[in-house]
Amino acid sequence: LAATLVHEVQHGKLAALADVLTLHTADRTPRHWAPWRADPRPLEGLLHGTYAHLALAGYWQHAALYGARGAWAQHARIRAQVAAVLPALRAHPALTVTGREFVDGMAAAERAMDATPPPGDQHAAARRTLERERRAWCAAHPELAPFVRV
Fold it and tell me: Averaged over 57-73, what is the pLDDT?
């Protein structure tokens, strides 16, 4: 329940922010890979998903520090997903100056998680799994593969 609340609150916060600031000028065409979904996403959906999953990665990292079982694996998986999407967001030409600052802030928050990495090779294992999933997604959506930047 707590993880769901963290996720959904982020969507609400970003929706409120988007009511007062223009983060991008992209249309709603679904063309981007989002590791947490099987279907292509528009830029708006990719921003929302990345923001929500960044908070989830932080939640699971904190839960792991307090000994929650399986939390490091959740953190590593979700953080790898966020890290994989951030380069595509940062390079997206439809971001406004404000949108670029927002994405840069997300990237800084993701990098700050390096201060407390998961034990062992959990992060590397999550990245390997994610790379296999990305290749499968690109094979399933060859017309969109050029939009997938890792």
Answer: 97
Reduced to 3 states (helix: H, G, I; strand: E, B; else coil), residue 94 is: coil
Kindly report the pTM of this predicted structure. 0.94
User: For 68-89, what is the HEC assignment?
Assistant: CCCHHHHHHHHHHHHHHHHHHH
pLDDT tens per residue across span 80-96: 999 999 999 999 999 99
User: Please, which residues bridge with residue 95 across strands?
Assistant: 24
Q: Tell me the torsion sign for CA atoms 50, 42, 1, 68.
A: negative
Domain boundaries, the chain: 2-147
Residues 6+ apart with CB under 8 A from 123: 76, 79, 80, 117
d(C-alpha 104, C-alpha 112), whole Å: 12
